[in-house]
Each structure stands twice: as C-alpha cells, then as structure tokens.
Design a protein that fits this description.
Bound molecules: pyridoxal-5'-phosphate, zinc ion
Number of domains of chain A: 2
Structural class of chain B: alpha+beta
Oligomer: heterodimer
Helix content of chain A: 25-40%
Largest sheet of chain A: 7 strands, mixed
Number of helices of chain B: 6
Shape of chain B: globular
Strand order of the largest sheet of chain A: 2-8-7-6-5-3-4
Order of helices and strands of chain A: EHHHEHEHEHEHEEEHHEEHEEHHEH
Largest sheet of chain B: 3 strands, antiparallel
Strand content of chain B: 15-25%
Largest interface: A-B, 24 and 30 residues
Number of strands of chain A: 13
Structural class of chain A: alpha/beta
Radius of gyration of chain B: 13 Å
Strand order of the largest sheet of chain B: 1-2-3
CATH architecture of chain B: Alpha-Beta Complex
Chain lengths: ~375, ~120
Amino acid sequence: MRFKRVYLDNGASTNVDPKVLEVMLPYFTEKYANASSGHTFAQESKNALENSRKIIAKSINAKTDEIIFTSGGTEANNLALKGIAFQNKDKGNHIITTKIDHSCVLESCKWLESQGFKVTYLDVDEEGFVNPTDLKKAITDKTIIVSIIHGNNEIGIIQDLETLGKICREKGVLFHTDACQSYTKTEIDVKKQNVDLMTLNSHKIHGPKGVGALYIKDGIKITPWQHGGGHEKGLRAGTENIHGIVGFAEAVKIANKKHVEHMIELRDKLINGALEIKGSRLNGPRGNKRLCNNVNLSFKGVEGEALGGYLDSKNICSSTGSACSTRSLEPSHVLKAIGLSNEEANGSVRLTLSRFNTEEEIDYVLKVLPKFVKKLRGFSAIWKG
Amino acid sequence: MEYSKRVFEHFQKPKFAGELKDADAVGEEGNIKCGDVMKMYIKVENNVIKDIRFKTYGCIAAIAASDTLCELAKGKTLEEAEKLTYADIIKEIEELPAIKIHCSVLGIAALRNAIKNYRKSN
Ligand SMILES: Cc1ncc(COP(=O)(O)O)c(C=O)c1O
Ligand SMILES: [Zn+2]
C-alpha cells in the first residue's frame, strides 16, 4: 500500500498540528496552575488564558471579553440556545433553526420544545440554502432567537450570514450561528455579518478535542447552565482547560488563506474526478458557496456504508449519510432536507479534507473509488447499468 | 460500526456475490426501514441447492451475512436450507452489532422466498 492512511474524515475531527502540540505541552507539566488561584505562579495560566481569548476574539472581529470558553461545539450550542431561551422566556417562546443544523442544535431545540418552547425548522433549497424570505416570514413577535449553521458539516453549504443576520437585526431577534465547520475556512466577521452569538470549536482546525468557544455580543444576557466557581464571567463554571485553550488559539494562529486555497484545489480535483463516474452526483453546491474541505457524493445503486467499508480496506477514511450506519436507521437529515430520496441518501459518502492532504492522496482515491463503485454495482440488487 | 474480522473477510471478498445466470428461482426481500434490498438466486437439482448467488443494495453486514448464508445453503436440501437461521450465520461470522440484525436476516428471508418461488413453479 502506498499510503499508511488517507485521512478524509476531517469534518469529523482533525490531527493536532505538531506545532500546536508543542505550544500545549508546557501547560501540562510546567505551567499547570489554576488560572483562578491568587499566587504569582497562576499568573502564567491567567495570561495564557487571556491571550488565547484575545487571539480567538480577533479572528472573528469580536472583543476579547465577548468570548466564553467551553468544552467544545456541542456545549457552546447548548449554552447559546438554552441560555438565550431561558433568559428571554418572558419575552417570547419561539425559536427558529433549520432542517440542516447539527444534531446538537436540533436536539437542544427538541428538548426546549419539551420545556414549552416552539421551534420552527426552516426548509432549505436543493443546494442547502436558507431562503432569507422564509426566515423573514417565520419570525413572529414571540421569536427570541434564530440559530442557523454557517458551514454545513455534511454538504458543505455556506450560508449568507450577513443577509440572514440583517433580517434578525431588523426584527430585533437574536442571531446565533454554529461556525464549527467554517471557522478559519471562510470569512468570519461577527460585526459585518450581524451575528450575536457564534459557536466555535478547536478539533476541526487541528487543535485539541474538548475545547470550544461561544461568542456572545456585548450586552446580551444569557442564563448559565453550568454552575460553580464563577469562571468565564459566571456563564460557564469549571476550571479552565488551559492547555486545550492554548492549543485552540495556536491552531487559529496557524490557519491561513494558503491552506484554504490548497484545500479548494484538492476538493475540486476530487469532485471533478468522482463525477466522471456515471450515475454519480455531488450533494451540496459547487464553487465558493461550498466549504473548501467538503466533498459529498452519491452513487446510484451503491450503499454508502459498504462503499466506505471498501475504502476503509484501502485505509481511506470516509463517512456516510447512509441509514444503515446510524443508530436511528434514518438516512442523513441533511441529505433528506435537500431533497434526496432515501436511496440517494443511503448511497452517500463524505470525504472531508485538511491542509495535510496531498494531491497524490487524491489521485489514489480517484484510482480506487471507481473500482469499488463498479464492484458494488456488480452485485447491486437495484443497479441497472 | 465495529465489525469482527470474519465479517470483514466475507465483506471484502464475497464468494457468492453476483447474479446466477441460469437460476431456477429468485427470491427478494427489502427492508423498508433502512432501505437495504436483497435478492437470492438458486439453482436446484434433485431437491438440493446446487448453486446460489446473492445481489444486494446493502451495508457491510448485509453483504457479509448473505455471503455466509450462501456458503451454508449450498449443497443443502431445500428443507434444510429453509431452516437456516440467524444463529447459524452468527456461528460462522462470530458476531454482528445488535443494530445490524435487521440487515443480516434479509438474506434468510430472500432465500426462503426463492425456495417458495421454486416450489411454486416446479
Ligand atoms: C457543525 C458542527 N457543530 C457542532 C459540532 C460539535 O462539536 P464538538 O465535537 O466540539 O462538541 C460539530 C462536530 O462534531 C459540527 O460539525
Ligand atoms: Zn444494513
């Protein structure tokens, strides 16, 4: 085998950049003080924490004290939705999200429904776009927050935050976005894009797992969910994960435009090559409305988990939206939302890139992928090629 | 999804995948829930399954379990083949994730349908 592993599941998680790890290490063994302690030694931890906060704030054009560190994207999304909902329950009980948001947003919304809140799940078009007119129409005088995923983890669609945020501003409704997938991969500017709350995380950008952040615009009040020692302005108690946070900030510092351009090149090579296979389709949009690292394909007559299994046998890591690969036995809710039939959704594979992938790896994938599609179609019960 | 080594072996190199051109009967079964589809082709001589193939639109478990079932059914009488169960498959491939049981029994149902269809036309 030419490669030990071709890792194309960066949408799920990424390798920690060795440079990130290097910066983290001293915080395990040398600079380990609790940032809340009073002694001089703790100052190092406190400085690292606040410096990291500054880096992350600057990267999205926020102020330093508008950033709250969390244990990841899931916690930040939970805090944003539940925190805003309960803070504003006297003003209204209506929440708006989309049918293609991440499960941690959708499940938070479902739980809020059980607590008496009403949720509207907006449709998207066949590429995954939220129609701004739909949003405008969905907002009522009871609406307290709109939460729309920025870059979609499955089909890569990037929403027009600026337009959607402007609608929310005009209607006096808070606007939250989950930017876990888009962070460092496309422009983010919370001021320009009219964002009130934004979820970020570290492990999709070559930082460590278990670290994330929630941007909360100055002046917005939120009900905390984790109570304790008053950390993070009392909004998120718990001793700060300094080594993780330092790594997160370093990952942000390293990420740059060149990486994005590299990923776009590989992405388009992979898409163009894969679409030469007959009976294939690209799920999600093409061009600059698509995350630079996302490829999602369906092959007629081919079941996604089986295709992923064959790729795995060649040490290529992918993921699938197939029903058979999930606990619920439901095909991907995102692929269904953009209008795919069950069969098309079950036949999907997602290949997500990082800056560490190479052109040779893509050549290799494009060599084996058509063979496996052909092999599966050779004994497919539904392929009539 | 975690699969045993035996499952992966059958999945990677299925011996009975494909169509049986001169099959005497075909049986089909679909799983509406997850969307898997299974077809079993049998060739029968003197009440014995002489040859067998499967075609599927199915996951790793569906492919591995059907291939195993074919291996077990080949050379058996129709009555014996009819009685093959999920437990017989598991004996061969060690284990399957609990959630995959529904995919693994598709082959059994398709085989029973094939036998039923054979009897109808003979
Ligand atoms: C869009 C999106 N939101 C939220 C999450 C959850 O983040 P975390 O794994 O840090 O909890 C992920 C990734 O798993 C994601 O892709
Ligand atoms: Zn299955």
